[in-house]
Amino acid sequence: MDLGKKVLLINTHLNYPNxxxxxxxxxxxxxxxxxxxxxxxxxxxxxxxxxxxxxxxVEKHLQADIIILQTPINWFGAxxxxxxxxxxxxxxxxxxxxxxxxDGRTREDLTKQYGTGGKMQGKKFMVSSTWNAPKASFGDPExxxxxxxxxxxxxxxxxxxxxxxxxxxxxxxxxxxIFKDGDIAxxxxxxxxxxxxxxxx
Length: 201
What we know:
Layout: E1 6-11, H1 23-38, E2 42-47, H2 54-63, E3 66-72, H3 80-95, E4 124-130, H4 151-154, H5 156-164, E5 168-169, E6 173-175, H6 184-199
Parallel strand pairs: 1-2, 1-3, 3-4, 4-5, 4-6
Helix pairs in contact: 1-6, 2-3
C-alpha cells in the first residue's frame, strides 16, 4: 500500500499536578512529530485534555493515513478522558456514516462477521504507551498479573475501536517501568526506528 502523507497524533495524557504532569508522553509525542515531519508528512495533532470538537476529529481521522495514540496506562487502561473522546468522536463518525455502516452483519447474509462494517480501510493505527509495569510482566505465563498475555492483548479495549472501523492495527510501542528501573532514554531514542519499521518508511 502506498502510504499517504498525513498522520494524526493524539496525546491523551491527563495531568495530575506534582505527580504525573505529562512530560514523558509529551516527549514521545514530539519525537513522533519530528520523525513524520522529517519524512515530509503533514502532522495533525490533538491533545485531548486541551479540548477538541468531535466533528473536527472525525475529519482528522478521515484525512490521516496513520493514526497514533500516545497514552499513559492508568489502572490498566488509557485515562478516562480518552474514553470520553472515543465515545464522542466515534459516535459522530457512526452517525455521519463516515467511520462505518453498521457492524457488518445483515439479515440477508448471515455469513458476514460482526465488525466487518468499517469504512476506514487503508489506514493504520498504533498505540505508544507508558507503563509502570515492567516488560517482564508480559508474555510469561508465570507472571501473576497478565498470565502470559502481551501488551497487544492488554490494549485490545483501545485497538478494537479502530479495527471495528476497518483500520489496520500495527505493533504497539511501550515504555516500561517508568517509575523504577525502566530505560526511558533508550526507549525514547529507539522510537523512530520502530515507526520506520511498522510503517515501512
